[in-house]
Amino acid sequence: MTANLSRKAYDERLRTLSEGSVNVNFNPFTDIRWDDPEFAVDTSDPRWVLTSADALGAHPWYQEQPLETRIRIGIWRWAVIAKVGMQFENLLMRGALDYVYHLGNQDEEFRYLTHEITEETHHTQMFQELVNRTGVDTAGGKRWFRQLSRILPLFGSLYPEAFFTGILAGEEPIDHLQKGALRSGEPVHPLPQRIMQIHIAEEARHISFAHEFLRLRVPHFGKVRRGALSVLFPLIMRVLCDVIMIPDKKSAALAGIPDRVIKDVFWKSEAGRKMLRELFSDVRMLAEEIGLMNRVSRPLWRALRIDGRPARFRGEPAPLTE
Ligand SMILES: [Fe+2]
Ligand SMILES: [Fe+2]
Prior knowledge:
The protein contains 15 helices and no strands. The relative contact order is 0.13. 66% of the residues lie in helices and 0% in strands. The site of one fe (ii) ion has 4 residues, from helix 9.
C-alpha cells in the first residue's frame, strides 16, 4: 500500500516548514557561547569521553583505554564527524541550489529549500568552528567521496529523487547518532551538546522535507522508474552512511585506533550491527510507505545489513532489545 500525498497537501506542509524556519532558527555565533570557559575544549575534560550510543564508544577496546586516551579519541571522533557533516551539508546546499535554479514561479519548494540552504550554511559554520576549536586537522570524508563531491551536486537537477535520497542518507545517521548521545543520559561536553540541540531542532524540518519530497513523487512513478529507485535507495543509504560513520583508515591509525577495532565497530560486532540496522528504521518506514520494498529490493536491504523492523513513527527510540 502506498499513501498518496496531494500537491496541495504537500504545498501546505512546505509552507508550515517555511514558517517554522522563520520562527525557530539559530545563529551559530550568537546562540553558541564559544568563548565561555565552560565551552572550552580542554583535553582533560572527561565529558569528551564517547557515550555508549556511539558504537565506537561502546566497544570494549575503547572502554579499556585510560581516561586520557578516551578523551583524546572522543575529541577526534567529534571533529571527524563534524567535518564530514560539514562536507555533506556543503554538497546538499550546492545540489539544492542547482535544483531551485530550475523551479518555476509560485513553486513552494523555492522558499522552503532556500530556508534549508540558509540553515545548512549556519550548520557548516558551526561544524567547521567545532573542528577548528578541537585543533584536530581532519580531512573529513574518504578521498573518493571528497573527489566525487564535485560531481554529486549535479544530481540535484539531473536525478532529484536520487539526490534527495542521498540527502536523507546523510541526515538520518547523523540525526540518529546525535539523538542517541543526548538520550544516553551519559555526560556530554556542553559544546557538542549545544551544537547537537541546534542541529536536531533544525534538521527535523530537513528530514521532514526529504520524506515529503519522496512521498509526493515516488508513488506516482511508473514501474521502471520506481524499480530503479527501489534498488538505488538502500545502496545510497548504506554507501553514504559508511562515508559518515566510518573514519578513514589512515586517520583512525593516526588517532591510535587499531584497524581491527574499526572493522569490529563498523559493522562486525554485535553492537555495530545493531547500530547499523537502527540507523535506518525511519527510512525503512518511508521505503515501505512509498512502495520501494519489493522482491528485489528487500533482499538487497538484507544483504546490506540494513534490514529490520521499520519505525512505527519518525524518531522512535530504538528498543533496548531486538
Ligand atoms: Fe544540517
Ligand atoms: Fe539538513
